[in-house]
Design brief:
It comes from Zalerion maritima. The protein is mostly helical. The chain is 52% helix and 3% strand. Among the domains are: 131 residues, no CATH class; 188 residues, no CATH class. A two-stranded antiparallel ribbon has the order 1-2. A two-stranded antiparallel ribbon has the order 3-4. A two-stranded antiparallel ribbon has the order 5-6. α16 packs antiparallel against α18 and α18 crosses α20.
Length: 669
């Protein structure tokens, strides 16, 4: 051991010297200290809680509470404490020290004698001396919330929880009906914790209470959706039912308060689960995904990275098999959120594959493993449609999607050979989807329940969307090189147009099957009417852009396509699907700015194509009035000015493949 210490001593001293140049922290405080506590801890009493710990506090051994990975630090080091979970890369000096067992044990003992101040504030009812919290700066963006009396704050949050009979119904709805954030919460483990909570609410970890508020909020929001959609539905029988919008807002605020009280930036048990549910709560009622949601996703990614979720748990012996599998599930959800929101916002992704090695979760039911599992069972066959299999399928599609998304946001040029290679990868991923997750047509899915149908449709639309984003940059040839580019890039152009047509065919199918009570998707209309909207807008815009950019030359160039390409989509087919989608956008236009723009754009390009007067196409958008067909569902027939097409074109970002802001109540089903 002494020889090993001597070999590393020089490198460690060099790294420590670098730390001294940027920090005044004493040398003995080598392990990363958690963020400073806040004045809210003043109202928390100093006691040990027997409440069950979350997955991040479960360890293979019961000796040191902050035991770090004893293996060589090639993958970095994860330190698990009551105050939080932190990760440092393999080049960090703390990771090198953690590879020296004697030094690691020394620091573990030192931390046990002098617990970190933040660890004292993890449970409601605990306190921290004021001298530990005085004068310590805190980022206002993360902790700029006023709390004058934390004990009263915790008490008021507990009092705001509805009676157990009501909460039982909401929890049951979450696990049985919602299917949101699948796999993030282990059902049987949560229900055990839920029973413990009702036995002793004030000894429950504050972040877990925030997690419960997340479940209550999501279930209540879905309840409001269906009550609003069907006026003949009975209102909740209990007078304590959270059917007041102000109460829903209070639940959402309580999630934030619980996360702040639990010092969520430290990491720790239940933090990421609560943050993900809070993200869902914020996104569900929104008609537009704005920049604030993207910033929230950034917070989730940063906290997860700080906790080492971007590294597979198999490389760290201090993480149990149960915790390791839950970390894979949670990371898979974070990857989906990052890809979905970044793509919708037209912004670069926050996660880089070159910096992660977390494996995909196994195809297991929650009943297949728990905290006592010594070795994870093998994955179930992918012919078994477990709840987590859908998430696994999405992650596999996104493994190609992230490369395409990165290429679409890269301002530099890309070779057409690279485009064709990625196109081949899309086809391979689609072919490798589990049979129960692959779209085969509505008539071939007669025994498939509504939610599973929506999932199949979503996965197929993801594939088609990737085709659009990959090939869209060469949808229209540049001036002066028309014939050459038609010949060279004809395949890409056809693939892009065909993908857009397929998505708009789904637009018609989803609309038909959700409008009537006997429709195949009526029971899943909450998912169908929100999460798919962004893809429908994208496909509409692509076809409008194609027709609008060609003008009177479209027929001539269509003839060139027939000669140079294999089975290109006809102009008549493009117009047909656009007209069908236009009727749907008109029906939604009263409550959606983007739907109104889409309907106006379709009307403009169709009018331009059918006009025989060459001067018609040169009319000012602002001077044109676009007449639209009567909505077959009833109601007035609104008129749009041609400027709506300009707004649509400016809102659509061809470089990113989507609208800057879109109608989307959820990032994905």
């Amino acid at each position: 051991m002494q020889e090993r210490i001597n070999q590393l001593e020089g490198l460690v001293l060099d790294l420590m010297e670098q730390q001294r140049t940027t920090s005044s922290t004493p040398v003995r405080s080598l392990p990363e200290a958690p963020p400073a506590p806040t004045p809210v801890d003043d109202a928390m009493s100093d006691r040990n809680s027997s409440w069950p710990s979350g997955p991040e506090l479960e360890q293979r051994t019961v000796t040191a509470e902050s035991r770090a990975s004893p293996s060589p630090s090639d993958y970095g080091s994860i330190r698990i404490r009551e105050s939080g979970v932190s990760y440092v890369g393999s080049s960090h000096w703390a990771a090198i020290l953690d590879s020296i067992a004697d030094l690691r044990d020394h620091f573990d003992e030192e931390e046990a004698e002098c617990p970190a101040p933040a660890s004292l504030g993890f449970y409601p009812g605990q306190s921290v001396p004021k001298k530990l919290t005085a004068g310590l700066p805190r980022p206002r963006l993360l902790y700029g919330w006023p709390v004058l009396d934390s004990a009263r704050t915790v008490a008021s949050m507990l009092e705001s929880i509805p009676p157990r009979q009501v909460v039982d119904r909401l929890v049951a709805r979450y696990f049985n009906d919602l299917h949101m954030a699948t796999g993030v919460i282990h059902q049987s483990k949560f229900l055990r914790e839920y029973n413990e909570f009702w036995k002793s609410p004030r000894s429950t970890p504050i972040v877990w209470i925030g997690l419960l508020f997340g479940i209550i909020s999501l279930s209540t929001q879905v309840q409001h959706f269906f009550l609003a959609a069907a006026s003949d539905n009975p209102t909740p029988s209990s007078s304590h039912a959270p059917n007041n919008p102000a109460m829903v807002d209070m639940f959402r605020e309580n999630i934030v308060t619980c996360l702040n009280l639990g010092h969520y930036t430290n990491g720790g048990s239940f933090v990421l689960e609560a943050m993900i549910l809070y993200f869902m709560v914020e996104v569900f009622p929104r008609r537009e995904v704005n920049i604030g949601v993207w910033v929230l996703v950034g917070n989730i990614v940063q906290v997860a990275t700080h906790m080492g979720y971007h590294r597979d748990a198999a490389h760290f012996s201090n993480i149990t098999p149960f915790s390791g599998e839950m970390r894979r599930r949670i990371w898979a959800m974070i990857v989906q959120i990052d890809f979905g929101i970044s793509t919708q916002m037209g912004l670069p992704r926050l996660i880089r594959e070159s910096q992660t090695n977390t494996g995909e979760p196994r195809n297991l039911l929650d009943s297949d493993f728990d905290e006592s599992t010594v070795e994870l069972p093998p994955s179930r066959p992918e012919t078994e449609a477990t709840p987590i299999l859908y998430a696994i399928s999405k992650v596999r599609i996104f493994s190609v999607g992230v490369k395409i998304a990165d290429a679409s946001t890269d301002p530099g040029p890309h070779s057409h050979d690279n485009v064709l290679e990625l196109d081949k990868r899309i086809d391979e991923v689609r072919a490798a989807l589990p049979p129960c997750m692959r779209w085969e047509g509505l008539s071939a899915s007669l025994a498939v329940p509504p939610l599973a149908l929506i999932q199949k449709i979503w996965l197929e639309m993801c594939v088609q969307r990737l085709k659009i984003v990959l090939h869209k940059k060469i949808l229209v040839p540049t001036s002066g090189q028309v014939h050459q580019q038609w010949s060279q890039y004809g395949y890409s152009r056809s693939v892009c147009l065909e993908a857009a047509i397929k998505i708009l065919e789904f637009h018609q199918l989803v609309d038909e099957e959700t409008r009537d009570v006997d429709g195949r998707l009526y029971q899943a209309r909450c998912r169908a009417s929100t999460a798919l909207t962004h893809e429908f807008l994208l496909a509409t815009s692509i076809l409008c852009f194609y027709l609008g950019s060609q003008g009177s030359r479209v027929a001539e160039q269509s003839t060139q396509l027939q000669a140079l390409e294999m089975n290109p989509p006809s102009i008549g087919k493009i117009k047909e699907v656009l007209r069908a989608s236009q009727l749907i956008w008109l029906r939604l236009s009263a409550g959606s700015k983007e739907a109104r723009k889409a309907a106006a754009a379709v009307q403009y390009v169709l009018n331009s194509q059918s006009s025989t007067d060459p001067e018609d196409s040169s009319l000012s958008f602002d001077d044109m009035t676009i007449s639209v067909p009567q909505d077959p569902a009833g109601g007035g027939s609104p008129c749009f000015s041609g400027s709506e097409f300009v707004d649509l074109a400016s809102g659509y970002n061809l470089a990113s493949g989507g609208f800057e802001s879109t109608v989307c109540d959820a990032p994905f089903p």
